[in-house]
Write a structure and sequence with these properties.
seven-stranded mixed beta sheet; two-stranded antiparallel sheet; globular; about 300 residues; alpha/beta; 13 helices; Rossmann fold
Amino acid sequence: MVIHDPVEDSQHHRRVIACNDPTAANQKTFAQYEQEGWQRNAPTYDTIDLPTTRQAVPSILNALGNLQGLHLLELASGTGYLAQQAVAQGATVTGIDFSSKMVSLAQQRIPSGATFLVGDAANLPFEANQFDAAVCSFGFTHFAESQTVLQATARVLKPGGTLAFTIWPEPDPNNNFFGLIKQVCRTHATMDVDLPPAPSSRALADPTIRKTMLTQAGFKEISTQTLDLQWPLQGPKTMVEFILKGSVRTHMLYERQTREIQAKIQEALVAATMPYIQAGQESIPCPALLVTASLNPL
């Protein structure tokens, strides 16, 4: 699953407000919004997000080596595309996702060779030392407690097992799909709106923070590779459709704007997209990071 936070700089401010607000206890949590958002987005994920995220799948699987006979855990398994590719290469896959609609779509996509269940990646319902490797395709942005997820993953991996996951780096506002969205939101959106306290979407993109988090969870031999992904253009409203049907964090900001501001955001997103279309380009750059690490042996 995929989304990038276009308003990270104001997130800490909203976090403080929410913590001091006596009504905050009655508000939905970030995790609840994420789950509801991906329930909403499940039917459109394969047309909105997957054309981009699928580009990273070969690199994720290549990082694991020979998949024949591998028992693979996929966190935030979504509609099952990665699992399908892994099964085709000889792996047995267990996927977990907090969206029941995503799980249903994955089960339809792969009737055999993979098992999918609804669950919490921070509280994995598996025995220790069960999986040879674990993967996550752009899922860490959606976890309320990424460190807990890393620790839970380490528990269920066999000693020496491999973890491979993709994340979005800091976006370039001048020539990057998420950077353009971020720039438009900062220009036109009202940022001081009622949003739930949320973790940073970029923690694991920071090399220092990433190394600390992975090391504390028991991982070593950490490596990072840049993937030159492209977001396919499906018309002038590609970025608008992403916000409405393919995102959660940005959607939360957008839906809290007035209709007038929403119209300005849509107009600005179309305006930012048109130069690419007029130049005959079929996509907008959307680079990603592939992170791999191995679990310390006993």
